[in-house]
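Batch queue: ligand-bound targets. Current item pairs a single chain with adenosine-5'-triphosphate. No template structures supplied; prediction is de novo from sequence plus SMILES. Inputs echoed for audit trail.
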Amino acid sequence: MSTGTEETAPPVVATGRDAVCTVRGLIRTYPAGSGARRTPARRRGAEPAAPPVRANDGIDLDVGRGELFGILGPNGAGKTTLVRQLTGLLRPDAGSIELLGHDLVRHPDRAARLVGYLGQESTAFDELTVALAAETTGRLRGMGAVAARAARDAVLDELDLGALAGRPLKKLSGGQRRLACFAATLVGERPVLVLDEPTTGMDPVARRAVWAAVDRRRDESGTTVVLVTHNVIEAETVLDRVAVLDRGRVIASDTPAGLRALVAGEVRLDLVWRYDAPLGLPAIAALRPLAEISGRRWTLRLPQDRARAAVAEVTGGPAFAALDDFTLAVPSLEDVYLALGGRGKGLTKL
Ligand SMILES: Nc1ncnc2c1ncn2[C@@H]1O[C@H](COP(=O)(O)OP(=O)(O)OP(=O)(O)O)[C@@H](O)[C@H]1O
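Prediction returned. C-alpha cells below.
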C-alpha cells in the first residue's frame, strides 16, 4: 500500500539501541478541581473542588522495536494519561519521553507523524461515513488524494468493512464504530500504533480481524504496538511484554509468562454458593478467612496442595449440596496484579 508517509514523517533518529520508546520519571498531576464533571455549581464554589490527582507518578518504560507492549491496570490506574503523553496530546509535569529518537516533551507535535493513536473515545469523525473517516485520516496525515483513497479501500477491504463504508459512524453499533475507527487509525501507516482498548464492544470476528491486521503490520513493516487493556485473557494471548500499572506507578514489567511465574505455585479456586455459604461445616468455616468474598462467590488463591484438599472438602462432603458452581484455574495476570499488591479491586473493567 502506498501511503505517501515517507514524505511527511520526520526522520527516525538512531537511538543507539533497539528502543522505540523510552520513558523516564514521568509525572502528570491533574490540578485540583479539574476534570470533565466540573459542574456550574462547582465552578461557583457551591461544592468543594476535587483534590489534585497524581495520575502518573514516576513512570519508567522501555518499548522495543516491533514489540506488542501492553499497559494493564485497573480503572483509574493512569493508563490513558500515560498514552496521551506518548501521543503528544498531554504534557507531562516532569520526566522524559523519547520516541524513535525524538524528544516528545520538547516536541509533542512530532508524535502525530510517528504514532497512529486510537483513543478510548473517538467521536471526532462521528458525522463522517466509514469511508470518509478513513480517507480523511489519510489526507490529514499528508497523503495525496489518490493515495488516501487507495489506502482507504485497502483497509476497508482488509477489515471487511465494505458493507458499512457508506454509513455515518454515529449510526453504527459500538463494536462497528470501534472497528471503523481502528481502520482509520491504520491509514497512512505509522511506525508506532498506540491502541487504547481497541477491541471494546467487538464481537469475536471483529476482534480476530483487529489482531490479524496488527500482526500483518508487525510482520511486514516491523510496526511497534502499545496496547492499553483491561482484558487479561487478551493480554496473555497477544502481548510480548506488559507493564502493570497501579495508582500511577509501574508495579511490574515482564512477559506475561514471566509475570505469571511470580505466582506459579498457586492456583485459583472459585466457589459459587447457591445461597449462603454453609459456615456450620468446619471445613468451610476454615476456608472463609482465606477467601475474597463477592456476594455468593468466594475466590481463593492457594498453594496447589491446599487447593486440592479444599476441592476434596467442598465436593466430597455435605458442602457439595450448597454449591452452585466451582472452577479451579491456573493463575492469570489478574492474580499476579493482586499478588503484587495492586490496590484496585482487580483488572476487570467495571
Ligand atoms: N481530565 C482529568 N481531570 C482530573 N482528573 C483526571 C482527568 N483525567 C483522568 N483523571 C484522573 O486521573 C486518574 C487516572 O486516570 P486515567 O484515565 O489515566 O486512568 P485509566 O487507567 O486510563 O482508567 P480507565 O481504565 O478507567 O480508563 C484517575 O484518578 C482519574 O480520575
